[in-house]
Specification:
homodimer, mainly alpha, Farnesyl Diphosphate Synthase, two-stranded antiparallel sheet, 2 strands
Chain lengths: 320, 320
Amino acid sequence: MHNPTELQKIIEQAIPKLAYPAQPANLYEPIKYIMSLGGKRIRPVMVLMAAELFTDEVTKALDVALAIETFHNFTLVHDDIMDNAPLRRGKQTVHEKWGVNNAILSGDVMMVESNKHLSKVDVNVLKPVLDTFNQTAQGVCEGQQLDMEFETRDDVSIEEYLEMIRLKTAVLLGGAMKLGAIVGGADDKNAALLYEFGENLGVAFQLQDDILDVYGDPEKFGKQVGGDIIANKKTFLHLNAKALINAEETDILLGEHENTSNKVKAVTLLYNNYGIKELANTKMEQYLAKAYQALDDLVIAENRKTNLRELAQQIMVRES
Amino acid sequence: MHNPTELQKIIEQAIPKLAYPAQPANLYEPIKYIMSLGGKRIRPVMVLMAAELFTDEVTKALDVALAIETFHNFTLVHDDIMDNAPLRRGKQTVHEKWGVNNAILSGDVMMVESNKHLSKVDVNVLKPVLDTFNQTAQGVCEGQQLDMEFETRDDVSIEEYLEMIRLKTAVLLGGAMKLGAIVGGADDKNAALLYEFGENLGVAFQLQDDILDVYGDPEKFGKQVGGDIIANKKTFLHLNAKALINAEETDILLGEHENTSNKVKAVTLLYNNYGIKELANTKMEQYLAKAYQALDDLVIAENRKTNLRELAQQIMVRES
């Protein structure tokens, strides 16, 4: 078995070897560009890791891992258009560099590339692989749609928010685990448990991201601390606070401040007063517990589960 | 065997029965909307027709036919964004009605829906079906990319133009025929010949469209006669004329006229003087001949080929 770092290396070595047609260059260059921007390759590593629980031939799962990573990057290209984002991992987004139309079309062809990778799996698992992938892809699109709609809605409930992050972020982690399990040769029960592990870990991860936006160490957190507060983003913290606070405090939460730093301070104080961080931590721990429960229930030798626990810990790095 | 009209009816009856999730409504309503706008359903009819050459159970090919029609409509949604088109079949385009971001995402999920339809075919043909579909989808994306790039290029050659329309329009007709053949149970040789038939018919169809833009009967042609001339579109006629005319005539071809009707008249006169219509007709007939040759070479009973000949004639309706 390979440890997470070794699996990441397998992915990093495979990506530059992916062959795309030379022409039309402007269709394929953006794919090479976005795929080379890096990131932790968590999703394809999850595919390989899940497969390796059931087979020693981890390369059997490489095509599916590349399909998942290509699909994930496709969603980044299209999401960045929709969010009008100038930067991705510190570099120009595809639509900034090549224009919106080109970015739409390169994204489209990335979806085709994902499906080409998938179609290479053993024909005896092709149908369940396709079904799992398509269900995953559909969920991710639904999550992005809900996320966009929430921006202009004032009545988003906490349950709706949890469902949105489940779809937008977590089903892809669940799908990655399940796909790896299927190509590795898992039975239906183990494949379903690995899906549960990935999905619950995904929701926990997103809740952690919501918490770190407010309480993260600016040195360690990759984004601007307080960015969600400044943007009035409807995070788990925001929605919980909104449900508890009075009218005056609502003005603080939703109002615009000339000094954004003062707004971050004021809203953080509000969160502190209402124990919002603890609420979010509790919810996050619930999802994590469900993820670990799925691991416990997994019918494989205990010593094979070490990598998955290590991965979960890597993903859920706590700020003290 | 069913005639083309009966096959079209099978498609028209199947489309309203397609079930999409109720939520998020704004993700799925655009799919129902664009799929219900009609059209001649040529591509899914081609799938069924090709299948019926080899099987009496035409419904075996229905999922693939719906995959092709869904994919085609996905390309319309995204192409209309890129072309900034306000209308499609006389109705608002999806991005006009729901906004660009929504249209991008609904298009994306249509691609997933296409793949879901595909995954329902018999597992013994699943792999060749996926390979053919993915190759087709990739070609269509490449064609759209070239079409966009040609708008700002001054050095497009006639060969490049033919390759662009082959990719953008013709490979989907070829792919539809081949997919139908595969699910119907054709051998590789017949499937390849049906691809040839569809692709060559597709190029001939696009060349006819170029000709009709200038020489079509305004009563019968669905679009504004002379539209390509006014837009300086690099059609087969435009590119052939450009290669033959002198500098003064080039000003007529490429210049802007205050009176668009005068420009159409002047460029048509130019085309007439250089026999451009005949050039285009000759090229179109060459592709048609290749399409019919593929039909002749098809190893099935001659009386089963009648429907395909009828379809080709329906598509290639001549203006006298």
